[in-house]
Amino acid sequence: MTVLSKRDDASGFPWWMAALGFLFALMGYKIWSDDLYAQILSVVSEGVWITLYVTAIAFALATLTGLLVALAFKAPNNLVRQAARFYCEVIRGIPVLVLLFYMAFVAAPVMVSLANALLVLPREAGWIDQIEVRDFSLTWRAIIALTISYSAFLAEVFRAGLQAVDHGQIEAAKALGMSRTKVFRYITFPIAFRIILPPLGNDFIAMIKDSALVSVLGVADITQMAKMYAGGSFLFFETYSIVAMIYLALTIGLSLLLRGFERRLRVHEDR
Description:
Elements: H1 15-33, H2 35-44, H3 48-73, H4 78-92, H5 96-118, H6 120-124, H7 138-163, H8 167-175, H9 180-210, H10 222-233, H11 236-270
Helix pairs in contact: 1-2, 2-11, 3-4, 3-7, 4-7, 5-7, 7-9, 8-9, 9-11, 10-11
C-alpha cells in the first residue's frame, strides 16, 4: 500500500485555489473601481457566448465522430480499420491552426462547388438559388475544423476505453443471448464511460482554449473582441489581462465541476 504524505494528500488545503481566488478578487476590485476595466470587460464579454457556442457544438460533433471512428477500429473489415487509422494519423499530424485555414479557404469552396453540382436540377427549376462561398459562415467553418481536429484525438480516447473493458464480461453477456448492440449499450459503453470521462473532460477544456484560434478567421469570440478593442485603444495589458481571467474562470470552473462529478461517480460505484 502506498503511503501518501501530507504534501500529496488531496484533502489538504488547496493553496493554489486560494492564490487563484486572490487573483480573481484583485481583478474584480480593479473592474469595480476602474471604469476603463469595466468597459473592457463589457466589450470582451460579448464574445463569451460565441466561444461557448463554438466549443459546445464542435465538441458534441467531435465526440460523435470520434466514437464512430473508434468503433471502426473494431470493425471486422480490415479496409474499414485501415481507413480509421489513416484518418486519425493524418488529422492528428496537422496543427489545429493549419486545419482552420484549410477548412476556411480550401475545403469550404470545394464543398460549395460540390453542393452546386449536386443541386443543379433544383437550381434550374428555380427552387433554390446559387450557393456562394460567402453563404458558408466562418463560424461554421471553424466549428467543422475543430470537430475534425478533435475527433481524431477523441477516437483514440474511446478506443483505449473500449479496449480496457474486460473481454470476459462481453463474452458472458453474449452467452446470455444479448445482441451486439445490447452488449455495447448495457455492458461495454457504461464501463468504458467511467474510464474515458477524465480524458474526455480534459479535451473539452482544451477545446475551450483552442477555440481562441477561431479569431484568426474573424469569428467574434473572446479573443477576437479583445484583438479589436486592443488594436483600437492600444490598451494591450488591460485587455489581455481580462481575457486571461475570463478563460481561467471558464477552464478552472469546468475543471472543478468535472472533478466533483468524477468524485460522485466513484462514491456511487463504491456503494
